[in-house]
Amino acid sequence: MKVLITGGAGYIGSTIASALEDEGHRPIILDSLVTGRREFTSGRIFYPLDIADGEGVKTIFQEHPDIHAVIHCAAFIVVPESVEEPYSYYENNVVKSLSLFKTLDEVGCRRIVFSSSASIYDMVPDFMVTEEAPLKPSSPYARTKYMMEMILKDLAAASSFRGIALRYFNPIGADPAMRSGIHVKEPSHVLGKLVDVALGKEPVFRITGTGWPTRDGSGIRDYIHVWDLARAHVKAVTGFDEAFRRSGAENYLVINLGSGKGVTVKELLTAFEKVWGSALPKEEAPPRPGDVAGAYASAEKALNLLDWRAEMGMEEAIESALRWGRERESRLSWD
Ligand SMILES: NC(=O)c1ccc[n+]([C@@H]2O[C@H](COP(=O)([O-])OP(=O)(O)OC[C@H]3O[C@@H](n4cnc5c(N)ncnc54)[C@H](O)[C@@H]3O)[C@@H](O)[C@H]2O)c1
Predict the structure, then answer these.
(1) Which residue among 74, 82, 85, 207 is buried most deeply as judged by most CB within 10 Å?
(2) Cα separation of 32 and 251, whole Å?
(3) Please, what's the b/e burial string for 288-304 (b: 16 or more CB within 10 A of its CB; e: otherwise)?
(4) Which of 5, 6, 11 has most ligand 1 atoms within 8 Å of CB, for mutation?
């Protein structure tokens, strides 16, 4: 089946494209390359467009009327940057997504899968969140995700399409076949930073935030191998109608995508040092703007509705990130 992926030249979208291809499906990439990588579109049907380019999106559907579903990954994603530049985050992630959804309704798109984020959850005492847990998005970035969930829900009730919002926890690692991975020069993701320190590109790993009410004071996360995350999207598009049938929901669903295990940043660091084979230089630092103590997923709904659960371990993710960290130098260029 054909699946349109917005943001398909990015870290997660490109991995989803690989997972779709491995299952015999045909990804179609829509990406403006504002942050993404042309290298990740190689050999794929690729439209270098902005999501708000309504005529361009319509052309894609004219040329591929058999698109089964749209996975909407395109967004700006850096939390501290969203604190400094809220306008561009609301414009890109909300205004342009709204425009995309209008176009998708006009072309009769039936299924939208939206990349949402666990960063919209409020903190709960035991850190484990179900999809019904209270929400409290604490940064402009997280608020763009929260707003788009509300918008998708309202539009799905009145439009040609139904929507599934997938709340990702903390994707780490790279495609095991090394087709893509983290691509920014200076990764803001914790594992990307660990890899940079291990490979000598950064002098020291900063544990940002050590006064949280967790078991060791560092933030708690639910690290999920990006390949597991990508496989969940294959399930979400191929099992889209079945997920609605099973849930009884009419037109909108929210599903957590996490491993179901809480791991602190310090525990991740220890696991990384074990895989790497030696200790890294590290220091403790205050939390970054917009940081939160964190959460981990209740992963039951994904199992019940999508027949999906995370299968790969944290060590596998760390190992793939290290491999990608070495390989990407020869695969990607930075200005
Ligand atoms: N990476 C994470 O830790 C994480 C966690 C939770 C949710 N998410 C969500 O997953 C999605 C993908 O994240 P990622 O890590 O792959 O980021 P990424 O920056 O690697 O990919 C985003 C892609 O979207 C494209 N894009 C951005 N704005 C666009 C626009 N207006 N028109 C066309 N293309 C545009 C970029 O060029 C890029 O290729 C995002 O929606 C993000 O909010 C990511």
Answers:
(1) 74
(2) 29
(3) eebbbbbbbbbbebbee
(4) 11
Question: Which residue CA neighbors atom 43 of ligand 1 most closely?
Answer: 77
Cβ atoms within 10 Å of 42's Cβ, excluding its own: 10
Structurally, how many domains does the chain consist of?
1
Q: Is residue 321 part of a domain?
A: no
33: left (phi over 0), alpha (psi -120 to 50) or beta: left
Residue 106 lies in a domain: yes
Q: Which atom of ligand 1 is nearest to the CA of 13?
A: 16
CA–CA gap between residue 327 and residue 100 (Å, rounded) = 35
- Cβ atoms of 156 and 327 within 8 Å: the answer is no
Mean pLDDT, the chain, integer: 95
| β-strands 220-221, 263-264 pairing | antiparallel
Asked whether residue 50 is assigned to any structural domain, the reply reads yes
Identify whether 32 is part of a domain: yes
pLDDT tens by residue, 59-75: 999 999 999 999 999 99
40 band by pLDDT with thresholds 50, 70 and 90: very high
- Residues 149-160 have a mean pLDDT of 97
Alpha carbon of 163 to those of 69, 215, 224: distances in Å? Answer: 10, 37, 23
The partner residues of 333 in beta bridges, in order of sequence, read: none
Residues 267, 288: Cα–Cα separation, whole Å: 19
Distance CA 173, CA 228 (A): 10
pTM exceeding 0.70 = yes
Q: Which domain holds residue 242?
A: 2-172+223-258
Based on the residue annotation, tell me whether 168 is a catalytic residue of this protein. no
